[in-house]
Design brief:
- It is built from 19 helices and 16 strands.
- It is α+β, with helices and mostly antiparallel strands.
- Among the domains are: 2-119, Alpha-Beta Plaits; 189-393, 2-Layer Sandwich (Alpha-Beta Plaits), CATH 3.30.70.
- The strands form five sheets. A six-stranded mixed beta sheet has the order 10-11-9-14-15-16. A four-stranded antiparallel beta sheet has the order 4-5-1-6, sandwiched between helices. Strands 2-3 form a two-stranded antiparallel ribbon.
- Strand 2 (43-44) and strand 3 form a beta hairpin.
- Helix 15 packs antiparallel against helix 18 (455-466).
- The chain starts with a strand and ends in a 10-residue tail after the last helix.
Length: 489
């Protein structure tokens, strides 16, 4: 008898995103990714699991056995295996169902069984620590029982936080990246945000980061519509994973050549908080954020899922990128990046209403897209990013600030040309101020270039990016410091 098995880490907020510290966040994420990936090809309870697809914290497998009793033994053994890998600090739901031949219906039933298990589990595993005298210094919830040493101070943290921090001792990052690239790597990476962001030659971008979040546009709808069996679902997963491995390879190749992408100790300034499934979360120095996002969209620009030669759908992404100080609370910056991505998705939503509209209307040029936020002070935003942005810029201006893949090339070209030909930065402030006060006219730009021999070429270049939207001067103004800076071209 053939079975489908789904293994999923649940309640991620209490194993990955429960602190503002990068080490336990990274460690928790990588542990979950590694745990579901480890099941691939593994023999558990005497049964070998065959991978159908895996994500950042979910694995879908198939196996064969004699009856339901043996199948349940496999389920229990998988649950034990996953719990062991994470030392019982994470919660998992594991379920199987007999393969009836109706693949889509089987997946829905399987997901329902997993959700039912999740709802019966506590969202947080609280250890039985009767002698703890204080809460964990990082998560503020679990008992603090392990003393750790940071520069200039000692702190007490929970077993869970300590376990995730020390996951780096197992070189999990190198293991994960090697698996993604399908080759052994020996790069060194920064281990904390401060070191990643510190570069005294970067001027006002020193000690700033770019937090990048990317999410596939309607990947679930595309999968559900076009994947009628396990082979097609595996092909879908392989299509996405191959493109993303090309992105990672391009990023590491860039880091090898670009001196500003490495520390004096030859460590690459790169953090991964989520990798797999439909989503990515990465952190790079602020001066590399634009170039890295450009690399990602370049890697994805021709990616389509092909069910057959004449039946394919483009696999596009919406993202959010936040430029901010490295000391800003990571959980809040992550929330903002997700909100920015959601706003980008809302703006292109009509093209994704049906699978047919996706096939006929969606393009990478127009629908690989993102919103950005330059955050000079964390406290200025307060609540929802959308409310802040619309109040700060104005609703019409903010809507014009979303960027597509097509826009990225134009904006990179225009800012480089403006910088190379000495466009006065202070005049950009005059222009955006006039736009906000409804007092803009072309003479403001002409006056700024009165003594510039390249004035006509500069204006022509700017207008290619602006189109008919003068509000896009705000994009030039906000991203001036982050595009074509240092070695990040």
């Amino acid at each position: 008898m053939n079975y489908l098995l789904r293994a999923e880490a649940v309640n991620l907020d209490n194993f990955v995103y429960d602190t503002n510290k990068i080490q336990p966040t990274r460690g928790g994420s990588f542990l979950l990714l590694d745990s579901v990936q480890q099941l691939y090809g593994k023999t558990i309870a005497g049964i070998k699991l065959k991978k159908i697809t895996t994500g950042a914290s979910i694995g879908l497998y198939s196996f064969s056995t004699n009856d339901n009793v043996e199948a349940e033994k496999v389920v229990n053994a998988v649950h034990t295996e996953l719990t062991s890998i994470t030392k019982s600090h994470a919660t998992f739901a594991v379920a199987c169902i007999e393969d009836t031949g109706d693949f889509k219906a089987d997946l829905l039933k399987l997901q329902t069984k997993v959700r039912w298990q999740q709802y019966q589990q506590p969202t947080l595993i609280l250890p039985d620590e009767k002698n703890a005298k204080e809460e964990c210094a990082f998560d503020g919830v679990r008992p603090g029982v392990v003393e750790i040493h940071l520069p200039g101070k000692k702190l007490v943290v929970s077993d869970s936080v300590d376990f995730r921090i020390n996951a780096e001792n197992k070189k999990l990052r190198e293991k994960i990246y090697s698996r993604i690239l399908n080759e052994q790597i020996s790069y060194k990476f920064t281990k904390d945000i401060e070191k990643l962001a510190n570069h005294k030659d970067m001027g006002n971008l020193n000690n700033k980061i770019a937090f990048i979040y990317l999410d596939g546009n309607k990947f679930t709808k595309i999968r559900n519509s076009l994947c009628d069996n396990s082979t097609e679902l595996t092909n879908f997963s392989d299509t996405v994973e191959t493109a993303r491995s090309e992105f990672l390879a391009a990023l590491l190749a860039k880091a090898e050549k670009d001196k500003t992408f490495k520390t004096e100790d030859e460590e690459i300034r790169f953090e991964t908080l989520l990798w797999g499934g439909d989503e990515l979360e990465i952190i790079v120095p602020a001066w590399q954020g634009w170039a890295v996002l450009h690399l990602f969209f370049d890697a994805m620009k021709d990616v389509h899922f092909k069910k057959k030669p004449d039946d394919e759908a483009p696999l596009t992404h919406a993202g959010g990128i936040v430029f901010c100080n490295c000391k800003a609370p990571i959980r809040e910056i992550r929330r903002m990046a997700h909100e920015l991505s959601d706003m980008a998705k809302d703006a292109i939503k009509p093209a994704f209403e049906t699978i047919e509209s996706i096939k006929t209307q969606v393009t990478h040029e127009k629908h690989d897209t993102f919103h950005f936020l330059v955050l000079e002070s964390f406290d200025t935003v307060g609540g929802k990013v959308k409310f802040f942005a619309q109040n700060y810029f104005g609703k019409t201006i903010w809507q014009s600030m979303m960027i597509t893949q097509e826009d990225m090339g134009k904006l990179t070209s225009v800012i480089k040309f403006m910088k190379d030909n000495a466009f006065p930065r202070n005049k950009i402030f005059d222009i955006v101020r006039a736009i906000k006060q409804n007092q803009f006219n072309q003479s403001i730009v002409d006056n700024a270039l009165a003594d510039n021999t390249m004035s006509k070429d500069i204006v022509d270049k700017i207008n290619i990016f602006l189109g008919n939207k003068i509000e896009r001067w705000f994009v030039i103004s906000e991203l001036w410091d982050y595009v074509c800076v240092g070695g990040a071209q």
